[in-house]
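Long-time lurker. I teach an intro course on protein structure, and each term I like to show students one example going from raw sequence to a predicted 3D structure in token notation. This year I'd like something fresh instead of my usual example. Would anyone be willing to generate the tokens for the chain below so I can use it in lecture? Attribution to the forum is fine with me.
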Amino acid sequence: MSLSPTFTRILVAGASGVIGRRLLPELLGRGHQVLGLTRSPANARVIEQLGARALVCDVYDAPSLKAAFEEHAPEAVFHLLTDLPDNPERIGDFASKNNRVRTEGTDNLLFACASAGVARIIAESVAWDLPGDGARAVAHLESAVLAMNGTVLRFGQLWGAGTFNRVKPMSGPTLEVELTGRLTVEFLDSPPGTYILADNEVKD
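-- Reply from a regular --
Happy to contribute to a lecture. Here you go:
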């Protein structure tokens, strides 16, 4: 394992989320300087407990986000932002919020990346079809990231502790949550493009 990473300064947007909490230790273990973006002071403490520095900033405050990126000058950014409830029965209630973070949130994040000269962008997407506005929001995120020569990771339905699925779903692409950090970090130096991350397969 190399301790001389290609990109030294890494920013993880959504660092306190299910994937982010598993990605931070992988990045830190490889010698990266990691800054975790969150809009919640409570989640900032979670990020710091994992060993990274926390940056509290609202992705919908575009001027503040741009200024923060220019100040901290990350070389690579992971876009893991979602807006989902703790209770899976309320997913429908959060649909518009999650769509907004995939559209407006993505646009603001990418604008900040461009302003700060970020060289590498890796974004979380999904490996199954969503209906209506959800599909349009995912398509917006993916096309915007790819237009900046970034990488889109389409995750299967996460399952395991801390997810909506305690056991592996019976249908559709799936991914055990404990694999997410180790798999995601490997795409830091991969060619730009779209990849599927699912149990027993990683393909483009």
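Some talking points for your students: Residues 100 and 204 are 26 Å apart (CA to CA). The two ends are 24 Å apart (CA to CA).
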